[in-house]
Amino acid sequence: MAAKNVANTFLDLPPAPREEPLAQVTRLLDKDGRQFAQFYEANRTNVRLGAVAPVMRQAIVAIEDARFYEHGGLDVRGTFRALLTNTQAGGIRQGGSSLTQQLVKNILVEAARTDAERDKARAPNLARKITELRLALALEEKYRKDEILERYLNIAYFGAGAHGVEAAARRFFSTSAAKLTLTEAATLAGAVRMPYSTDPSLGREHRERLKARRDLVLDRMAGLELITARQASAAKNAPLGLRLRPEPGGCAQSAYPFFCLYVQRELLSNPVFGNTASERRKRMARGGLVIRTSLDPIAQHAAERAIRRHVSPEDTEVAAEAMVEPRTGRIRAMAASKRFGRNSGNRKNGPKTTFNLPADTAHGGGQGFQAGSTFKVYTLATALKQGWRFGDGFKTPGALVPGQGYRNCAGRPVNDPNTRILNASGEGEGGPHSIETGTWKSVNIFFMMLERKVGLCNVVKTARSLGVVRADGEPLKEVPTFTLGVNEMDPVTVAASFATFAARGRYCRPLAIVEIIGRDGRRTHVPPSCKQVIDRPVADAVNYVLEGVFTKGTMRGQGIGRPAAGKTGTNNGYTSAWFAGYTPALAAAVSVGDIRGSYRFPLTGVRIGDRYYGSVQGASLPGPIWVESMRPALRGVEPRGFPGPDMSRFGGGHTPGLEEALAEEERREGRRGDRQARRPRHLFEWLLGRRPRRVEITLPRRDRDDGGRRDRPRRRN
């Protein structure tokens, strides 16, 4: 009866164990196919048996199951030998498991979801061994020998965090499984039995044990006549030859951590990649995906270098930049002045940050900074849509109280009679201004009045159509100062919005993932998500006006050697500063603000990098970063201009008093130029020993004892 029961145990076999897809590495590639980050629950890359060096196959079979190709899953000879040894020792001292049995155990451990299930799969008892034997026999009926060996080589743990032979070859020797040599193959084969005690990354003692295991494998291969005694001796006399290669996982150890974090958050939050957050997280960690991204290393390095030249990681003021390709929305670069990660002692302020500074909160960013005068482009675009011409404008006062005429998109008045608007220092004055001059000089009061004329809600709608959303995900603040950029934004969103004008009114949602290649090799292309949101003629007109920012406006003298358009952004109180600009091929936005809080720490009287700033304006820091990053980012890209505007529709217009004001400004500029031209002559006369003319200059000076009297003029030569 006992014999019959035993026979039935091994004749009435259960189905082969259910195999879960093995956890593999998910790799992130740049647009040129180079890897820059990876995620994994287990560092593993599955390979076909044909992609494993024959000597590696021989080594693993020799040391783990020399009769693998002869038995049917149960090595009776090996099992009885182990049984005898363990009985004499009074416990488990020798393993008699075949490769198939070891594969079964690994399958059960891999499928376990709790610690209890994992402990049960590893339990050193007779019941577990019998179950393992029965499943091994079932597996032998299901697969051919080479298929079993392939599965074993991919599932086995080799130590040092390497799961599977391909990951082990890379981790131990910086090579592939297909290129393993005899000594390397013997080393890996020896590591499988005791992967923790022979982990070479843990120190000299572990490496000595690994070498002893390698030599044992070589002796076993020689004993089976797989190699000669001379080959075994030569290999044993050779050093281990380890070339340990780190296998970092996650964004903190990526070459481009901010871009990596954006992609990671996109994978975890987008329903396209899974119905639930847990499903998406599991797919990313275990999926073995290859994700091609839109990252351009040339643009990325250009942005990083430009920021590094102006802002130090130690500064509390931070700069961030994003570059986006018009017509596709593909994000080409994301850079920040701070390094990604935690500061020592988890300090809040230091050279590192865990915020994805170029992105919104949905992609790991912070609250963003007020976008300032960059928002004036949405009022400009709205006015041009409504039929305004380039020369149209009006006279502006020196200050403005938005006490009437402003309604939000719900139709409610949102006037603010308690606020007094002034023009930001260095970005324009009162007086008559047209759409062109008001934009070039970035005149706050002009745009507040223009916004009231075209309708606050219409401006908000224009901004929304161009992808404008707050960095924190909250609804836009529909207030009179909307056109002055009171909403907090992130560089990715602003760059994508400005890219719409470069694409002649076609808005594309920011895109970081271009293609996903599954573990089965199936490719899923991620197309751009674009929509025509502004008529082409209107976009061409906006481009025409914004080109003047470089030639006649706040960025005069800071061109990039090719046609470009853009807008500075300086907030009242200097709480933050921006520059957003574009060419037909690339758009970029740069923000600067204090990471401790822009309201509490305005950008006045600050030292950033190695330079002191009385006040930071859009043209004084973000603008130069933009210029210095765009030049190299576009190197090799053929310069192209923007299509000219329809002058029959947008040309002309009239602003009362503007011609006279411009003429007076030219006269002042001329007089200033004459004075500057005379200075060298005075210096020349002084060098010749001629007596210089006495010039009276009024300089502010307050005597300490004058009781607050007016400043007195002083004479200087």
Tell me what you see in this structure.
One of its GO terms (molecular function) is penicillin binding. Pfam families: Transgly, Transpeptidase. The chain is an alpha+beta fold. It has 23 helices and 24 strands. The chain has a domain at 44-237: Biosynthetic peptidoglycan transglycosylase-like (Penicillin binding protein transpeptidase fold, Orthogonal Bundle), CATH 1.10.3810. It is 39% helix and 14% strand. α15 (376-385) crosses α20. The longest helix is centred in the C-terminal third of the chain and has 30 residues, at 658-687. The chain is elongated, with a radius of gyration of 35 Å. 46% of the residues are buried.
Task: Write the topology of this structure.
Blueprint: H1 2-11, E1 26-29, E2 35-39, H2 54-64, H3 76-89, H4 99-111, H5 115-122, H6 126-142, H7 145-155, E3 157-159, E4 162-163, H8 165-173, H9 182-191, H10 204-223, H11 229-237, H12 257-269, H13 277-286, E5 290-293, H14 297-310, E6 317-324, E7 331-336, E8 339-340, E9 352-353, E10 369-370, H15 376-385, E11 393-396, E12 431-434, H16 435-440, H17 444-454, H18 456-465, E13 488-489, H19 491-502, E14 506-508, E15 513-517, E16 523-525, E17 530-532, H20 536-551, E18 565-570, E19 576-582, E20 587-594, E21 604-608, E22 611-615, H21 622-633, H22 647-650, H23 658-687, E23 695-697, E24 714-716
Parallel strand pairs: 1-5, 8-9
Antiparallel strand pairs: 1-2, 3-4, 5-15, 6-7, 6-20, 10-13, 11-12, 14-17, 15-16, 18-19, 19-20, 21-22, 23-24
Helix pairs in contact: 2-9, 2-10, 4-5, 4-6, 4-7, 9-10, 10-11, 12-13, 14-21, 15-17, 15-18, 15-20
